[in-house]
Each structure stands twice: as structure tokens, then as C-alpha cells.
Amino acid sequence: MIVEARSITKRFGKFTAVDNLSFTIKEGSITGLIGPNGAGKTTTMGMLTGLIKPSAGEVLVLGKKPEAANKDIGFLPQDAQLHPQRTALDHLTLYGKLKGYTKTEAKEEGKKLLQLFKLQDRKTGQLSHGQRKIVGIAQAILGTPRLIILDEPTAGLDPGMAHHLKQQLLQLRKKATLFISSHNLAELEQLCDEVIIMQEGKLIVQEKLKTFLQQQNSVAITLEQAAGSFVSILKTLKDATVASEANTLTITFSDKDKTPEVIAILVKNKARIRSVHQASLEDSVVKLVHKP
To answer: Which end of the chain is more exposed for a tag (fewer CB within 10 A), N or C?
Structure first.
């Protein structure tokens, strides 16, 4: 395991941000960290990097305390700050030197990353929000550290830039382990092997993504009309719960899958079905952590 979090707790005064959290991250994996606002995700990432000290418990990265493994860790904070008067290459060169490169080596690594992300070397104060985010990501992956931790990496990126970044992250998994927090669950579903789900500072799920989705035993049915009017009709089903949003029904079965029975009821009641598929990661997480 590249990361072991052992019963870590973080308190800020009387407030407990992370509460007795234990999990592991396998080397070579892409793991998504998921949870609502205030779940403790950013604090957890801070403890993995050594920037935040646990109030109790311990974190090991490559068998060492994070401070001793910092050259093997790349980190993108949620709101990475850059000096507006320094260029993108200046930032990358400085960060490379802090990671142990010579100035020449760091500058060459920085140039490769600017080229990789098609970014011009301008003062960061002249860059857009999305371009500054890319500089922060480039800092995190410079030198391909063994563990790369990214907090909301695609927030503020345009679709083209976000797509390009996802392709680069999938390439990076051949050389590094990625730990990514994002509210874009469709994106995490495309990237991740495993998910860790937190709520109110506690761990509620750590599972392989495929296994987690299968365990939810849910189906999403998209209609060509508003779904809300069909909820009461489907509530006659035994061992099933029904939710609706816009034109999508999400049905969760507590026992065996009754999708054919659901479809028959909908057709009988003149529903126009557009698609039927396994509930997405977003559907499953909303159901799990946003229960009424």
C-alpha cells in the first residue's frame, strides 16, 4: 500500500473535521475521494501531504511519515496560489528545485509540462483562472512523484482543457498513484478504480468502483417526459425505493432486480422510455449521502 491512514482524527478547537478515519490506497491505482461539502476531504488530503498534523492517529506514505516522503508526493490544493508577477515557468522551475532538481533540470521539466498542456509562458497574473489551475496541476505532477494528490483538479477548466487533463491523468497512472477529490462524479466514474466516500468526517465506503456500483442494485430510467408523476405509481412495488429528478427515475431494489416489472408498469401507464441503465456513481452517491 502506498498510503495507510490509521484512525486519523483532526480537531479544530471543539470541531472535529475528520473522525477516526482509516483507509488504504493501492500503488498504481486512481482513487476518488467523494463527499458533500464539509465532509472532511480537504483536511484529509492535507494530512496525507503532511501540511496538516492529525490530532490523533497516523498517516504513512511509502511506509514513512508524509514529511519524510514529501519528494514522492505531488499536491494540488483546492485553491492553489501563484505569484502574479512570476511566469508559469518560474513557478515550475522553483518547485522543481524544491523537489531536488538542479535549476537547469527543473527548467527543462517545466518546459515539457508547458508544452504538454499547451500553455504559454506568461506571468500568472495574465493567465485565466483555468490556465492558473493548469500551472498548479503541472507543479503537482512535475517529476512524476509516486503519489499525486489533486483537490478539485478540473474545477474552472473549460471542457476541452478538462478532457485533455483526464487523458494525461490516465497516462500518468502507468507511473504514479493518483488520489483525486472532485464533485464532478461523472468524471471520477471515468477515471477511478476505487472510491472512498466520506460524510461528516467519517468513512462510509471504501470499495472498488465497479463493486460499489453493483452493490447499489439500482437502475436509472430516463423518460421523454417528467418523471415525478410516475413515482406514486411505482411505490406499489415491494422491496424497492423510487426517486425522481427531472426526467429520470432511480429505483433501488432491496432484494432481487425487478427492472422488467418496473418497465412493464411504466409502459402500461404510457411512459415513453428513452433509456435504461445501471445507476451512475452520481446517482448512487446522492442516494447514499443525501438521504432525506
So the answer is: C
